[in-house]
Design brief:
By secondary structure, the protein is mostly helical. The protein has 6 helices and 2 strands. The chain folds into 2 domains: 93 residues, no CATH class; 35 residues, no CATH class. The chain has a two-stranded antiparallel sheet with strand order 1-2. Helix 1 runs antiparallel to helix 2. The protein is flat and about 60 Å long.
């Protein structure tokens, strides 16, 4: 069951990137370049092949019993089916996805933020217990 869960968790973002997002995807600093789409397609095909295989029982023949059954299809597949039904019935209407909290990376200020140019560190005025530091632009222009 562990392999089935890991395969699914790692492959879902790859599958979405390859088959739904395509060329609209903004690659990060480390990527496979032109090989990312074919590699993602092969990885998705491999997982589509392996997940059903990993659900087969490890014992065959007349010796099958409840004790030797592979419960992966029930323990993993049951909740996944329920979550998919819940998504279709309710969650797709109200769930908006994660909030972007790295707008500076998306809006082209990446070099300034990484190099520390025109940036000042301030501690947020939250509870004071582990409150993250914020990076804020200084009003003066960059030389």
């Amino acid at each position: 069951m562990l392999l089935t869960s890991l395969f699914s968790a790692f492959t879902i973002p790859i599958f979405i990137r390859v088959f739904f997002v395509g060329q609209r995807f903004r690659p990060g600093p480390w990527n496979l370049g032109r090989y990312s789409i074919p590699t993602g397609a092969v990885a998705s095909a491999f997982v589509a092949l392996m997940v059903p295989i990993l659900c087969f029982p490890s014992v065959t023949g007349a010796d099958l019993s409840v004790d030797v059954m592979n419960w992966t299809c029930v323990v993993y597949g049951g909740p996944m089916v329920l979550v998919c039904i819940w998504w279709v019935v309710s969650a797709r209407k109200w769930f908006k996805g994660p909030k972007v909290n790295v707008a500076h990376m998306m809006l082209g200020d990446r070099e300034q933020m990484i190099e520390g140019l025109n940036v000042e560190r301030t501690v947020s005025r939250g509870s004071g217990q582990g409150a993250p530091e914020k990076l804020q632009k200084i009003a003066s222009p960059v030389a």
